[in-house]
From TrEMBL:
Belongs to the sigma-70 factor family. RpoD/SigA subfamily. This is RNA polymerase sigma factor SigA. The keyword Transport does not apply. Residues 201-271 are annotated as: Sigma-70 factor domain-2. Residues 44-64 have a biased composition (Basic residues). Residues 369-422 are annotated as: Sigma-70 factor domain-4. PROSITE patterns: SIGMA70_1, SIGMA70_2. The keyword Transmembrane does not apply. CDD domains: Sigma70_r4 (cd06171). The gene is sigA. Residues 68-92 have a biased composition (Acidic residues). Residues 225-238, 394-420 form the RNA polymerase sigma-70 domain.
Length: 434
């Protein structure tokens, strides 16, 4: 009879079996967890892979842009002259934007009125608020030109070289318009770059024009007009500047700006234009006169000025007359300004009241004397001396009126004049003789 298995052995087997099941379950759980983790990480890896692919495509795009950069930029330059220029908008859009900005500015300040296109035409005019604008145009201009920084000597040379290259490219393009297409594109790009360099050199030296124009204020032209004329001289200086000479641009441009301003003053500042060479003589005489006034302590005589300027005293007096400024007849006089300068100047063509009365009395006396003559004699004398319509008639014209010859009219005139010379008739008219 075989021995019965012990209780301890059965329990151990059960424990081992349970442990094996637990181990298998744990492995299955780990496997499931690993699969889930892999499944969860798969989208992340997919997103990373997609991002890398996108980065590669972008990088490839950038490389492609780098290769075609010159052609694209050149096409943009040829289509749009200024790369910094924003696309133009129609007038209606611009007007709406300006009205909106003005309304926002007013709302921020809490005061003021804004006119819009929808306002009624009969409504009272209101002040238009423009953000950033002031009532002083000079201040606005100075603020605008102050945004461009000044240039050093090397920058001036670089800009001048670009300008020269642009002019040379323009010359070559005009000489050979049938050149290669790519070369023509390059030439046009160089021309455009030269124009940009010219504008940069101009804008950086606008403050030089202002500083020189200040010296000529109060001489018959507005300050802004002087600045504009000086800007024309600055443009001429940019076109003529030779960087190879080694001078600074401001030193060279000063002479062109001064010349433009002085020529404009000679042409525009005076009511009566004086030739430029005479204006130079007038200015020289004025300088010498001021200097001699300081040295002598008194006004110099024409002889002293003529000796200093190598001119005759008569010529000095004549030049001084040319230099006088005309005076307006409407210049107010007195403290109250109730009278004008023109009120004190005699009108040589105006009729003096006493002379008008004397002329009226003379006409009355003449008619009274003519009444003592016959109708034909009075008519012949009146027409002969223009007493009827102010136009003297010839003998032929009077003869046609009366139907007689000119000789007969001459005889009537001679006889009538003899009668008028008689003291009984001429005495009353002698008082009117000068």
């Amino acid at each position: 009879m075989a021995p019965a298995p012990s209780k301890k052995t059965a329990t151990g087997d059960a424990t081992e079996e349970t442990a094996a099941k637990t181990t298998r379950a744990t492995k299955a759980t780990k496997t499931t967890t690993a699969e889930d983790t892999a499944t969860a990480d798969k989208p992340k890896r997919t997103r990373k892979t997609t991002a890398k692919a996108t980065t590669k495509r972008k990088t490839g795009g950038r490389r492609k842009k780098t290769e075609d950069e010159f052609d694209l930029e050149l096409d943009d330059v040829l289509e749009t002259p200024d790369a910094d220029e924003e696309p133009e908008e129609d007038e209606a859009t611009v007007a709406k934007k300006e009205e909106k900005k003005a309304a926002e500015a007013v709302a921020a300040k809490g005061s003021g009125f804004v006119l819009t296109a929808s306002d009624d035409d009969d409504a009272p005019a209101q002040r238009v608020v423009t953000p950033g604008a002031t009532a002083d145009p000079v201040k606005d201009y100075l603020k605008q030109i102050g945004k461009v920084s000044l240039l050093n000597a090397q920058q001036e040379v670089d800009l001048a070289m670009r300008i020269e290259a642009g002019l040379y490219a323009e010359h070559k393009l005009a000489e050979n318009p049938d050149m290669d297409k790519d070369l023509k594109k390059a030439m046009r790009w160089v021309i455009h770059d030269g124009k940009r360099a010219k504008n940069h050199l101009l804008e950086a030296n606008l403050r030089l024009v202002v500083s020189l124009a200040k010296r000529y204020t109060g001489r018959g032209m507005l300050f802004l007009d002087l600045i504009q004329e000086g800007n024309l001289g600055l443009i001429r200086a940019v076109e003529k500047f030779d960087y190879s000479k080694g001078f600074k641009f401001s030193t060279y441009a000063t002479w062109w700006i001064r010349q433009a301003i002085t020529r404009a003053m000679a042409d525009q500042a005076r009511t009566i234009r004086i030739p430029v060479h005479m204006v130079e003589v007038i200015n020289k005489l004025a300088r010498v006169q001021r200097q001699m006034l300081q040295d002598l302590g008194r006004e110099p005589t024409p002889e002293e000025l003529g000796k200093e300027l190598d001119m005759t005293p008569e010529k000095v007096i004549e030049v001084q007359k040319y230099g006088r400024e005309p005076i307006s007849l409407h210049t107010p006089l007195g403290e109250d300004g109730d009278s004008e300068f023109g009120d004190l100047i005699e009108d040589s063509e105006a009729v003096v009241p006493a002379d008008a009365v004397s002329f009226t009395l003379l006409q009355e006396q003449l008619h009274s004397v003519l009444d003592t003559l016959s109708e034909r004699e009075a008519g012949v004398v009146a027409m002969r001396f223009g007493m009827t319509d102010g136009q003297p008639k010839t003998l032929d014209e009077i003869g046609k009126v009366y139907g007689v010859t000119r000789e007969r009219i001459r005889q009537i005139e001679s006889k009538t004049m003899s009668k008028l010379r008689h003291p009984s008739r001429s005495q009353v008219l002698r008082d009117y003789l000068d």
